[in-house]
Amino acid sequence: MQMKMDGEVQERGGRRGEAAETAEEETAPNSSNGQEHYCEIKELVDLIESTASIGDYRMMQKKESHILVRRLKILLLLLEDVKELHGQVPETSSIPFSILKKALLCAKELLTTCSVGSKIYLALENEAIMGRFHNVNKKLSKALKDLPYEELGVSDEVKEEIDLVRMHLKRSKGRTESQDAELAMDMMVVFSKDDERKADSAIIARLANKLELHSVVHLNTETIAVRKLVKESGGKNAESIQHVIELLSKFRRSAGLEDINVLDDPTFDNAIKKSPSLVIPDEFLCPISLEIMTDPVFIETGQTYERESIQKWLDSHQTCPTTRQPLAHSSLAPNYALRNLILQWCERNNFQLPIKYAASDTESSSSIEGKEEVVSAVRNLSSNQLEVQRKASRKIRMLSKENPVNRILIAQSGGIPPLVQLLSYPDSKIQEHSVTALLNLSIDEANKKLIAREGAIPVIIDVLRNGSTAAKENSATALFSLSMVNDIKETIVLSNGIPPLVDLLQHGTMTGKKDAATALAHLCVDQANKTRAIEAGIIPPLMKLVKDSYMIDELVSILYQLSSHQDGLQEIGQFSFIETLVDLTRDGTPTNKEWATTLLLSLASANSSFMLIALQFGVLQNLIEISESGNARAQRKAKSLLKLMRRYEQI
């Protein structure tokens, strides 16, 4: 009996075990699949954490990058909730998590580009980069929308956080700030196919400051980034990349560095072509030239450079290029240990060092003669003889135009104070030469402050009002160059510099109008200055010049800035000028169409009546064509304006 009972117990126990196993098979997900999903979740967590650790984003994309990272970090709350299921992740979440992973990979790629990519390229292609942010946001929004939150057991608190993220992702739009518009205009002027402009050097210096590409270290880092960009482009975006290379060369020359041919550098590209896997160690490259060193030398700070490169630097500087520390002396000591390491590496890798030629005695003596020429010309600025002063001011004008070394030498020789004093002379030629010399000298960042400190701003503005035609034009460009320093910009505005610039825009020669427009574009970035410019009557001459088909892109971009001001908006939105903009969307160049569409979008977004006027002039078909065949930025603006029109029709 007992045995029977035991048997029954065993039998019943066995049957219970079978039933339990059957129930588990019916209700639980496949354990191996669940574990796979768990690993996928952990992979997503690692992906977000590695993406969030990138940091140090470029100025143009810094705001959007930080916003995106903040949103990604909130997703960690969701994934941590899901990880607590310990492998019990439902099958229905597989596809949404796969979509989320793709979106996160796109986000990581974009943020990496915004962290280590070429600063020049990111500024030049800012609209396209903003479009990529918008696309990443759309992908993230879709992935989060399709997740089965209830089946995943996500808490209400986390669900609320995710809903908030989704709402922000859905509303996010790639918009450019006023600073972006300012940079866009600078880029436009620099890459203009027109004849060389006096403002080019000033604009280049301003761009270098804004993009933080004025130090040796930053320029060399940018050079490496541009080389990588060229290598990875595979021939695509050829025009944009060529612009990047050209501007990098200008930045390097402006900083007194050697120009490097990114596309055909003997120590980089040729070496790579011969041995694609060969990478020259960073410590073998000169921090100034980025070439492998053949004659490495120490300077006082302990930094090592190629002898030829550091010697050129020390001819015009008294600081270490890398640390910026002042140098008590310019003695150079050979770095034999590093040279031996370089030679051993070259022999081991069958790498041929480039041949360097030492500077000749003739070159050294001509350098000394050049310094004496500068000192003599500066001394003659204070002569008692008018003709001597006239010749000296002209000489300083020519010397300061030639190269950055002369600009530093002239300032160090005390040339700025007498030049400022000569601005008040009644002699028109002395006045013209002096203001042009100050313009050339202002290309050097340190000289800007020295010029302002000597009280030059009010005097330059006086020349702008009363000087000769050429003096007025160069005064406008000098004010533009000096206004790159915020304190000096404020001084220009407080010295009532905007009205005479507007007057030059209205009544000057074509060159004068161009110089005035460039200066006003920079000053009108600030909202308070927009008010001053509008009150001074800036908008009528701008619109007239656009109607006359002169400097269309530059001037429409200024009007775009002014359209953010209520008074400016009403003045720009005149019936006849909207017709001009519509004509440009039909008959203009690709960039004409781009800026005309951008301004129309700004007007229509602020007041639907402007949109109705544009529709009366037949803008609709033009916008459809631009949205299909315009340049990338024009297409985006045209699609936004068409979307706004459709929304208005629904209302």
How would you portray this structure in words?
With 651 residues, this protein is mostly helical. It has 35 helices and three strands. The chain has helices at 2-27, 31-52, 62-83, 94-116, 119-124, 126-145, 149-152, 156-171, 178-190, 200-210, 216-233, 238-254, 269-274, 307-314, 336-348, 361-380, 386-402, 404-412, 416-422, 428-441, 445-453, 456-466, 469-482, 486-494, 498-507, 510-523, 527-535, 539-547, 552-562, 566-572, 575-587, 590-606, 608-616, 619-629, 632-650, and strands spanning 296-298, 304-306, 333-334. The protein has a three-stranded antiparallel beta sheet. Strand 1 (296-298) and strand 2 (304-306) form a beta hairpin. Helix 17 crosses helix 18 (404-412) and helix 20 packs parallel to helix 23. The longest helix is centred in the N-terminal third of the chain and has 26 residues, at 2-27. It is flat.
